[in-house]
Prior knowledge:
Layout: E1 7-9, E2 17-19, E3 25-35, E4 44-52, E5 56-61, E6 65-68, E7 73-75, E8 90-92, H1 93-97, E9 101-104, E10 110-120, E11 126-134, E12 146-150, E13 154-155, H2 167-174, H3 178-187, H4 190-199, H5 202-209, H6 214-223, H7 226-235, H8 238-246, H9 250-259, H10 262-272, H11 279-282, E14 288-290, H12 296-303, E15 315-319, E16 330-335, H13 336-340, H14 365-374, E17 379-383, E18 389-394, H15 395-402
Helix pairs in contact: 3-5, 5-7, 7-9, 8-10, 14-15
Amino acid sequence: MSTAPSRVFVARLIGLPIFDPQGDQVGKVRDLVVSVRSEISQPRVLGLVAEVFGRRRIFVPMTRVTNIDAGQVYTTGLLNMRRFEQRPTETLVIGEMLDRQVRVDGTEITGTVYDVAMEQARNRDWVLSRVALQEPGHGFRRRGQTHVMEWQEVSGVTRQQDTQAATQLLAKLNEMRPADAATMIHDLPADRRAAVVAELDDERLADVLEELPEEDQVEILQFLERERAADVLEEMSPDDAADLIADLAPETAAELLELMEPEGAEDVKRLMSYAEQTAGAMMTVEPVILPTDATIADALAHVRNPDLTTSLAALVYVCRPPLEPPTGRLIGVAHIQKLLREPPSTLVAAALDTTLDPLRPNMSIDEVAAHLATYNLVAAPVVDEDGRLLGAVTVDDLLDHMLPDNWRDRMPRTGVTHG
């Protein structure tokens, strides 16, 4: 490795882009893999866990890493694309070492690991050399004192702990996008995953669940107490919640629907009433719906909502009352590009596209795909036989249902040189 810093704190590496020699990004750093030989000897760094395009995780040996600096990691470009599988003799620094309870030898100082540092030894191997720990807060101090100690001065970093918390790991996960956090949670050992799930707030857990494979969703939901599981389902988008509940045992599904708030449960039940792989089953019931007297300024204020996906923000739907699906009659839709070109005081009704044919809830997934492709749309309304708006199908909804169940595990086609 050339021109690398003498010491690197691992938590600061997470999320850094990984580049090949031509300067093309091939992935991101997600964890560090080490070999622990004993409590006192410095663990040898074996390599990085990298997330490449398609959210696939691979192993990058340190021998393939040519440079690390403040903002990126460089490799030789020759990467083995086999999915990373942790061996029994390997430890993940972020996934397993953070939050371990440790003691500084010869003192009364105890604390929680919040970072570790690695350095190159004389033989050019990278080893873990420092432990950053934080003491518990006392009295009015909400945060305890922090220390950075030599590896040999600290006991407990390499021991498995039955009651290991997840505070520091949660801090890293909360900095990630939900899809990235979901991938990390998917790869955690079962005990660490349980600790993380227990401490995530309901809204964040809902965001992460929406990005996990179905088997992980079911496993996590069954791990939760029934009341909390219902609360998390309420935080999910109704279409994702409906898909998840449909994968549960009928008696469990019925119990959770009973525990949910009536309004949320009603939306989920309505979506579950449609046949699978139809517009009705995959639509969202939370598009941007406006009355006929709404102005363009009103519409733009709604689509600025950061919780809206790009595809949901691309169209607004003008309807007669009531404005909750199923609404009154759909008058038309307005494209965001059109709204941006008109004076804010203009009524949205003056900028409507009334030529767009809506979808019917029983249309097949292939018919929906053909409709979006034909008219170059990222979203389209779904109406009933009376012209009432039931919801909207977005292109991301469509992709979720069209891609194979194991699409995250498939080999990326671009961006990485195969070795």
